[in-house]
Description:
Helix content: over 70%
Low-confidence stretches: none
Number of helices: 7
Radius of gyration: 26 Å
Number of strands: 0
Structural class: mainly alpha
Order of helices and strands: HHHHHHH
Shape: rod-shaped
Largest sheet: none
Oligomer: single chain
Distance between the termini: 27 Å
Strand content: under 5%
Amino acid sequence: MIREQYLQHLWDLLAPVPEPLRREWMFDYEEHFRQAAEHGRSEEEAAHELGDPRLIAKEMLLGYRVEQAESRNGGITHVSRAVLAAVSLGFFNLIFVLGPYIALLGVLLALWASSIAIGIASLYAIYEGTIGGTFTLIQSVFIAISLLAVGMLLGAFTKWLTGAVSKGTLQYLKFNSRMIRVKKQ
């Protein structure tokens, strides 16, 4: 009875994972219970050897989310899911993973917003040169081209920085997951 409850609980906790992969993972845990029975150990002992199914599921979900983010070229959405999976593993990750990640997302958002705002400011410069009268038309075109160039350069840098943050976050999450496994052993 313990075997079925343990495996069902683990199965339910791994619900975010596609069913074929979940079946593959569950096979190892089912095999552990089979081997324990063959060696004369009780289901309680086998379950105790495996550990808490919630912790197992959290670790497996972290690995899955990191792998998913890597396979999708480190998109921010997938990296964020991996970060949230890491945060679920404990208070340490809440402070040392989520806090800096949110700060980096704030910086990236500010850079993207600045890039777009500078691009829009180029339209305002054209407006001022043609209708507003603050600049001559030639001055406004020069200012607009300059602003557009700065906005595009900032946008290109921000795109590169977004990729670097995603890759760096994934590398840290892999390191963090390895440390959790080492600590557990």
